[in-house]
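Weekly structure sync, notes
Attendees: PL (lead), two postdocs, one rotation student
Agenda item 3: pending single-chain targets
PL asked that the sequence for the first pending target be pasted directly into the notes so everyone works from the same version. It is reproduced below exactly as submitted, 438 residues in total.
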Amino acid sequence: MFFERPDSGETAVLVHIDFQDSTEREDTSEFMELVRSAGAVPAALLTGSRRSPSPKLMIGEGKLEELREMLTTHHAELVIFNHSLSPSQERNLERALQCRVLDRTGLILDIFAQRARTHEGKLQVELAQLEYMSTRLVRGWTHLERQKGGIGLRGPGETQLETDRRLLRGRIKAIHKRLDRVRSQRDQNRRSRTRAEIPSVSLVGYTNAGKSTLFNALTNAEVYAADQLFATLDPTLRRLEISDVGPIVMADTVGFIRHLPHKLVEAFRATLQEAAEATLLVHVIDAADPQREAHIEQVNAVLDEIGAGEVPRLLVMNKTDLLGMSPRLERSGSDDAATVWLSAREGTGFDLLEQALSERLATDLVETTMRLEPSQGWLRAQLFSHDAVQEETFDEEGRTHLKVRLPRRDLLRLLSHADENPDDYLSQAEQGREQWQE
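Predicted structure, written out during the meeting:
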């Protein structure tokens, strides 16, 4: 759009180099999945090792020659690096290879651009792409610069490069304003849920861990779910009823990945804020993935970056069917529900997940016995509609004795609507809890 580059095709030669610095190493299998998710056809993979990246080309002259031969052999039009390239490295590689060169960040941005469906998602992707492009504009426009030295070559006004940089800055500023409005709307929605005391639960996890499959099974939603990286990009919120808790709002969020580009994190901050301000994070993990521990670390790192590091979380080990395991619930040292093993695809272990969510969210349950007069039929009906009544008996005077169990906020709301004094009932709560335990 903003600069001319060699035409790109779908047949690609991939480049993966192992460097001594372990923090810079990428996963080859994940790289292949990213390429396929983008719609490219991997023709060959060039691998190698170096002590450190070449400042000019990332790879050495020998590997560059191998790369030329692979491009000719496979008639490929695209080279994709499993690394982040500087603008000058990309420019030098394209000049040397005479084909389109893409780095890992550009590849992920391309996948995000394909997956975005909502207006907000498209804005966020465009913002990340424009900020990524802004450092690479010089490559394609040098031949159009109108200000040149020498008699007869000096032109008035700005260069084409400066014009496009100005247009780029204007577009970025406009998108920021739109996303600020989106962020304000999301903040207002979250405040409304907070006032209504409705807990929010966000599904987070590494990409392709099975979040959307689990989300669809729990909420009867129809979020797109597929065995590919970044199948879900746009966040989806649904209402869900949990026993002993009542209604909650569950959010399905974009998956994380190793070395997620910082500009993507910044662009999607409005979306990821759902996770940062959630009551509970459900961290979905692919239990069958041999890299699961590394993936857990990556997810934790992104959560720290967006300010969600301190939000309580429940681990969900998904895809137990691939391990031949039965669902189970593991507890922490303090006897809290900590990890649920289940299979979202097979639909097993959901009862354990609901039990864990109920325990983690229902932190203020009231268990008491309520004595209602015949005139309090409305309150009795409301308690039954909330599934709060555990036992009902009647005395000789026709009064109703109800053993109830429900969140304190719901009981207070019902008593307020019935013009009842909460102290008349809550004072019995401790006594009722003792009777319950007996």
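Discussion points:
- Residues 35 and 42 are 7 Å apart (CA to CA).
- The chain has three domains: 11-102, 197-361, 365-432.
Action: rotation student to compare against the earlier draft before next sync.
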